[in-house]
Amino acid sequence: MQAIKIFILSDSVGETAHAVAQAGAAQFGDLDITYQRFPFVRTESLLQTVLAQALKEHAIVYHTFVDRKLSQSVNVFCQAHDLPYNDVMTPTLDLFSGITHRQPVNKPGKMHDLNTNYFDRINAIEFAVTYDDGKNPAGFLDADVVLLGVSRTSKTPLSLYLANRNLKVANLPLVPKAQIPDEIWQVDPKKIFGLTNDPEQLNTIRRERMIQYGLNPDTVYSNTDKIKAELAYADTIFKKIGCLVINVANKSIEETATLITESLGYNEPNR
Amino acid sequence: MQAIKIFILSDSVGETAHAVAQAGAAQFGDLDITYQRFPFVRTESLLQTVLAQALKEHAIVYHTFVDRKLSQSVNVFCQAHDLPYNDVMTPTLDLFSGITHRQPVNKPGKMHDLNTNYFDRINAIEFAVTYDDGKNPAGFLDADVVLLGVSRTSKTPLSLYLANRNLKVANLPLVPKAQIPDEIWQVDPKKIFGLTNDPEQLNTIRRERMIQYGLNPDTVYSNTDKIKAELAYADTIFKKIGCLVINVANKSIEETATLITESLGYNEPNR
């Protein structure tokens, strides 16, 4: 397999350039790719050192520099030495310059301004951690989103992903015969989402988890009949509540989260 | 202030296009921007409906389509109607086509393949939630990163952000006179990071938190002398451990996280 080395250069953390590189790479099947990030590159001399290294390693260069002198330097260097590159920031800066008739402020990392929305996001993350796993039923009443589902339907990572989009999320595992907290019945069903999965996929995931724990994978936890019974129980609860049900089988956290924000008609506040 | 409407179009969730738009916008000071996401646009007819809406609202169009027919449609439409647009996906697809001499697989959302790294990420998120706030000292021994810091130095969101980059993180709040768990002294100091902050910023953050709670903001919790004593105590612990200390004042979670991954020489696995 062709080995590909990608250098991510940025005067901030390089997250956006990394995401764009990964989005491209994902469309080309199995590739042997190594990503290397060079964040906080804010001087021409440091930049030249990194570029010399890129040339030596025949790397592909993805970059986001808010300083146009630095992004120009990268582009000129890559063109001169025939290194493939993607300047992620310049088109979006040009676009906003055109609309606002202003020049960019050239402040790296400005995206992460410590504004109110930023603190709201931190509060939402802490909320998700506090009210994970039905820990405290009071959370259901304050939450923007309540997730219900049997074990291994990605309630926790989904809660945190949504928190990162400024939503306060509480989740509750559904276990047959366990009592559903009264608070659930006081929540607007539009805020509640039932997570389900295919029995086969749950079986595979749960077996893997048992193996990770160094336990026998063939326990009641991964028994397909038991899983089907759990899912059927969850289904009756979802029907009783009248909430939207999402089957997370073969869906990524991002996709499930987007179905939820769409259903809520939720638009993330500006960061 | 000029009102700007940005439409984010994608055949997947639109996260990358949203990030690029925000990175551009952040460089132009105060703007009155509304973002609206249109995820999972996978047919020409749905696309045309959204584009007609964009035209009606004079929106700026950011898009990521792995289907080149759809991205071409957007670009042609925007050019014909003089709508500003940014095609985030095509340059990265062209770049990989050039290197691999292959055509993209045109599978939307492929970025979020449910591979081993994906499950590792979910495990890391669950780890961070389980071992948040010093809940169980056993976590310190299994963690890739241990965060120590006084209250309001963003330990929890930082733990989750690093978890999202596949690192297992446990954190411990430092409270003067409280016992430090023995496990901390068994951890490689290179894995430990001490978080500190400026007393003034901590005072502001803590006062705000008290107000949020509907409490008097002028408590011992936000008293500057007490805060200084807490920070001094934390400092002696950091020195005793011999760990790297990061002052999070005016740093975003992303920036602090990047300082940590750089210090570890950590390269995120491919997603």
From TrEMBL, chains A, B:
Reactions listed under catalytic activity: N(tele)-phospho-L-histidyl/L-threonyl-[pyruvate, phosphate dikinase] + ADP = N(tele)-phospho-L-histidyl/O-phospho-L-threonyl-[pyruvate, phosphate dikinase] + AMP + H(+); N(tele)-phospho-L-histidyl/O-phospho-L-threonyl-[pyruvate, phosphate dikinase] + phosphate + H(+) = N(tele)-phospho-L-histidyl/L-threonyl-[pyruvate, phosphate dikinase] + diphosphate
Listed name of the protein: Putative pyruvate, phosphate dikinase regulatory protein
PANTHER family hit by this protein: PYRUVATE, PHOSPHATE DIKINASE REGULATORY PROTEIN 1, CHLOROPLASTIC
Transmembrane segments: none
Any one GO molecular function term: transferase activity
Family of this protein: Belongs to the pyruvate, phosphate/water dikinase regulatory protein family. PDRP subfamily.
Binding-site list for ADP: G149, V150, S151, R152, T153, S154, K155, T156
UniProt cross-references to InterPro entries, sorted A to Z: Kinase-pyrophosphorylase (IPR005177), PPDK_reg (IPR026565)
Entries under Pfam families matching the protein: Kinase-PPPase
EC number(s) given by UniProt: 2.7.11.32, 2.7.4.27
Job of this protein: Bifunctional serine/threonine kinase and phosphorylase involved in the regulation of the pyruvate, phosphate dikinase (PPDK) by catalyzing its phosphorylation/dephosphorylation.
Keywords: Kinase, Nucleotide-binding, Pyruvate, Serine/threonine-protein kinase, Transferase
Domain of life: Bacteria
Taxonomic lineage of the native organism: Bacteria, Bacillati, Bacillota, Bacilli, Lactobacillales
